[in-house]
Amino acid sequence: MRIRFGYVAISLDVPEGTPNKTISVKASEKITNKDDRMSRLRRIMLVNLETTLRILRYNAASGIHLYRFTSKLVPLATHPLAAGWDYIAAAGTKWRDIGDYIRKNSMRVSAHPDHFTLLNSPKPDVLAASLADLDYHVRIFEAMGIEALPSLVLHVGGLYNDKLTALARFTENFVQLPERLRRRIMLENDDKIYTAKDVLGLCEELGCPMVLDIHHHRCNNAGEHLQDLWPRIAATWSSVLPKIHVSSPKNQTDLRAHADYVDLADVRPFINLATKTNLDFDIMVEAKQKDKAMFQLVEDLVAEPGVRRSGQATVEIADLLGRG
DNA sequence: TCGTGTCAAGATCTT
DNA sequence: AAGATCTTGACACGA
What we know:
Layout: E1 2-8, H1 25-29, H2 34-61, E2 66-68, H3 94-104, E3 108-110, H4 124-144, E4 152-155, H5 163-175, H6 179-182, E5 185-188, H7 196-206, E6 210-213, H8 214-219, H9 226-235, E7 243-246, H10 268-277, E8 281-285, H11 290-302, E9 307-309, E10 314-317
Parallel strand pairs: 1-2, 1-8, 2-3, 4-5, 5-6, 6-7, 7-8
Antiparallel strand pairs: 1-10, 9-10
The protein binds a DNA duplex through residues 10, 18, 20-27, 72, 76, 78-81, 114-118, 121, 123, 126, 129-130, 133, 157-160, 256-257.
């Protein structure tokens, strides 16, 4: 069984490896001349795209096949201040260059619209803003020429006092999404409201892939066991390999926050149970120490019996019969 | 230059 | 009804 590893947005091993450069609304409002303001936004975007390309080159050189883009590539992308700005055209061939590089190196990329993107909000303006944010993400994926596979991770959203109603509203809004948005979406269990079981039921109903977050599952579950859920979760992935998120609690009192590194003990039980199904999958490491944490986890894993390295960020796990 | 409060966006709990 | 908190990393500003 093969497992590939990836990390989120920022590389700590790449000099100036943060693609999150931005500008505050207040600061941009101080630039009164509109051309100047847009040119400032454009310069920031170009730096972010350049940084992203440098990160991808580092990923390729380091055998990393999995990477999550920052959602902040385009500063103020969906803010009224930038309304009408064609940030795709404003970057010339940069989007396409990034996409070409990704294709050439067979990378799997994703993004995670942040927690303001809520498809189950009862407020029309919040829903509209969420659609605009999804549209932004899809536009940049399209501009890169990345195949329309599930690649945008979303949570189900708020509780709004009643889980069943909130889930029904999610479904209602989801099925009305334009196809080009809907087919890019995958759903993740969260650490407070929607458990892995909740999200699995939703994903099965909607034909949507489910990203299992094993840390969130530990924070938020109703006693379900992952060995029972995993085969069904894996079955929600038809076109691509299943993907899971891993992280460790920051400390004993702050269990939901992410730690600098990932403790192998938090991941090993899941890998053991996944070995029974013997299906390959990808692991996105969510840790403060980013790519350093990802490599550390790989190191810790390959030190275990029955695990061998098959790339700098890929491992091969022997199945129960000792093969592999 | 450095440290720290602030920051586009929502939801939820507390008062 | 209003305010605090959640959460994150970078900005922005003042010392």
